[in-house]
Amino acid sequence: MHFRHLGRSGLKISEITYGNWITHGSQVENDTATACVRAALDAGITSFDTADVYANTKAEEVLGAALAHERRESLEIFTKVYFPTGPMGPNDTGLSRKHIMESINGSLRRLDTDYVDLYQAHRYDYATPLEETMQAFADVVRAGKALYIGVSEWTAEQLRAGHALAKELGISLISSQPQYSMVWRVIEDEVVPTSSELGISQIVWSPVAQGVLTGKYLPGQAAPDGSRAADTKGGAKMIEGLLGREDLLRRVQDLRPVAQELDLTMAQLAVAWVLQNDNVAAALIGASRPEQVAENVAAAGIRIPGELMKRIDEILADSVVRDPRQTEKSSPTERLC
């Protein structure tokens, strides 16, 4: 395993970070989820990412139980706050002081830990003054309940404003968690340059484009049994937009010779690709089977030659989504409940 500094901080995290979005508490049974966490630990992963909204708080419980007997100081545990949880009352969502303070206590209880290494704003909250949000985060840090602060799917302007307030309050906003992959590059033009300037790193989710970049989904053919696209518990809904792009599926198949030249699987190529970006501290991987963890971890430390990076660009061509306005669209403009 290789490790990278998170932002301009002294904290190092494993460049392959294990995330339990969709899978834990919903898509897979708890014993399988625990086996996947054990596989991650065995592979040298020390960083684990979750969120209170995943499976409506159950994912945090599963992760906490799976890590219960590990030395806490040897782990980096991340969670997030924003989306509706619990009975979804009017204050069970967003980044108000009330919701943040109640949510961090709930997350710590479910994760069975005294603190998280990174506490992240899961989206930007247009319904709450940013000053209120950042003051609440500062108080969470000063209470010792979180060491660092991060965000997820914030625009460059939002990052700049949040970072300025954090600095004023004496806390460290060091990370951004956006979607990023060979086919989804909306952060490259604005978010990445701004983050580099401010000392913020990316922890990127969906580096394999929810499985599309593994090459398992073939144009005109049904989704394989056991795949996310065949999952009726939520996975299929998340991926249907990508599967409807037949031209993209054809272009992904053309990436196979590139992966073979590097002696990588298609999934390993996709994970290694996001790690070529110097502003990326870690690629988030998920798993429904322990062997998937071992496969993805093999992408750690891989360097893709420049000529092959160029060939990837040529193969994918105009199937890549680059519009930076897509980031802003990911945050609801109104409260969800």
TrEMBL record:
Keyword Oxidoreductase: yes
Domain NADP-dependent oxidoreductase: 15-316
Annotated CDD domains: Aldo_ket_red_shaker-like
One GO term describing the cellular component: cytosol
This protein's UniProt keywords: NADP, Oxidoreductase
Annotated TM spans: none
Keyword NADP: yes
SUPFAM superfamilies: NAD(P)-linked oxidoreductase
Molecular functions (GO terms): oxidoreductase activity
Pfam families according to UniProt: Aldo_ket_red
PANTHER family: HYPERKINETIC, ISOFORM M
The family this protein is said to belong to: Belongs to the shaker potassium channel beta subunit family.
Protein name per the record: Aldo/keto reductase family protein
Organism: Ruania alkalisoli
